[in-house]
Amino acid sequence: MRRLKKHLQDNLSLSSKLFLRELYSSLKRTASGLARFPGLVVKRLVGSGGRAKLTAFEPPSLPTDITNLPVQKTPAGDRTADIQRSIIIPVFNKAEFTFQCIQSLLQEIDLRENEVIVVDNGSTDQTDAVLAHFRNVVRVIRNEENRGFVDACNQGAAAARGQYLVFLNNDTKVLPGWLSHLVDTIEADPANGAVGSIFLYPDGSIQEAGAIVWTNGEAHHYGWGASPDDRRFNFAREVDYCSAASLLIRTEIFNRLGGFDRRFAPAYYEDVDLCFGVRSLGYQVRYQPMSRLVHFEGATAGSDTTRGFKQFQIVNREKFVRKWRSVLERDHLAKNLKQLTDASNRNRDRPRIVVFDERVPSPDRDAGSLRMFLILKTLAKWCHVIFVPFNRPQSIDYERALWKAGIETADAVDYRRLLKHRNVKAAIVSRPSMAEALVHRIRRVNPNAGIVFDMVDTHFLRLQREYQITGDAATLAEAQRYRKLERQLAERSDIVWCASGEDKEVMQREAPATRIEVVPTIHELRDCGKPFEDRQGLLFIGNLAHRPNDDAVLFFMREVYPRVRQKLPNVRLEIIGDNPSAAIAVYNRGEVRVRGYVSDVEPYLRDARVFVAPLRFGAGIKGKVGEAMAHGIPVVTTSIGAEGFGLTHGLDVMIADDPESFAAVIQQLYSDQELWQRVVDNSRRRIETYFTPDVIAKTINNSIREVGQA
Asked: Which of the chain's termini has less CB crowding within 10 Å, N or C?
């Protein structure tokens, strides 16, 4: 069976594999587990009349004698120097939940940047003892009576020092990354005014994945009872509101709104009202599923809406509707459970762009992935982007990075459902293998959707150049096959994206009637790192499973590096990249270090004096060259390596194609500080002028808008 599976994987076309996946999916739908969410006790959900029935949870317990526990130690450092965020926790009794909440919180936050304010609403249980235990790490405001959630939160906010307020229920347990993801999200866009989390029940199922408000004012917890692995609930998006059981808001906005509106005291609908207020000031309320916490719903206020605080859930809804009636009628949908997906996303009317690629981008491993990741982020600023990979890596972290940026992901077998949505304007198909499998399917399912064929690089050109180096007949045959395929795909598409001007010229000759745009690798300017005198050594970075990179390193080690050592005897060389071959690994000795994959290459880019890219064949634009220039490290490369950047030898790059010349310009650049600085300054200026996200975004967005209108 294993041999058959491997044979099919190696020999079937991607189109055939997609057909088999569709067939398998129609026969059997497998439910994904909850194991990806650590720290949760996962229990089975039992069907009950079409709705999930949640298993009971075991409440937390206090230590046997809380009064005898050592007081939580004061953290090291100045706790008043730079408070950025104020976490406000209103409590009334339920000391055991408060103890659990603060314990989980202290594992996640740095108290030099965050303060914790607990507002005790006249608790009569062991809450005093719990807060005494944490007295060195939390600030406590005590009320003689239970003033309710609204007043307690406003009290805490009035005493807060942070530029952000974070409201948190005491019947919660925050999970790893809870706060950092909230902060990253609000700081990523000044239009974000408030950010909320995904709430999980103790059994691991979803309580709330962003919330909906229907025109009648009724609130709906989107995702209730579903699996947190379901991709529909896992991408960040703008929502009607997020519960204040975990909600971060800019302090300035909270103050402008006058805090929680007291007409909703003591509790309920105050957070819905606050989120509506945020939008009334021109800001967004964003749901961030990477921020996760367990919510023991009902532990503090109960669940009976006919008595106690819970009765205000009904009373305050009527007040809320009176206050926001015009907004509800204008901007919200009438209650219809068949429209949950649309109602869950306030950007539901945005154009939809479906992007197909071979795999989830891994930006820290290869330049093509970084390019795709930045393309997706660019589009997500004005479109609803759905990314559809054919393969996924074992680690889900790369997909989570897309979700965090507001990019939905889906399975390839769902392409029909995705393409049939009324708002789909365009489909981007990346790489020839994906385009071969999908272009005709896209035309059949949605003839009105524009098609962008993203070549990444011109495969047949790269293979032709490889043949010129190797003389391998199989490579030539592969080049001829790709030439025919890429020409056909270009002619069947509405627009073609090439990665370099050189590739565009080649493809224009192959498909003269097709519109072609250049979408190169995209680079954000980085810190320049160390000055010339503090840098040492040479550096190569590139995915070594890619044949041009493997050949480049072997060429360098066999023919260039020995010549460099003659002029620079002690120069160090760092080789970084996934999947080094055995032929490369043997050089890992002496002054040469073959590092393989390195998760953080920034230190190497800051420390090395010269970046080498000795590419003998390839096509498109070389992301490794652009990243080096963006980091302020000068590059020595070949004519092929310099393609696409418009570089000039001796001004913003050093170019050489034969081993002797390559070694000579390395020695020149390595030893001449004036030349080194000139190349650094000019190359960074070129990146800033032509290759930053804002610059490339114009080409991406304009071309998508045009094909979407076709």
From this structure: N
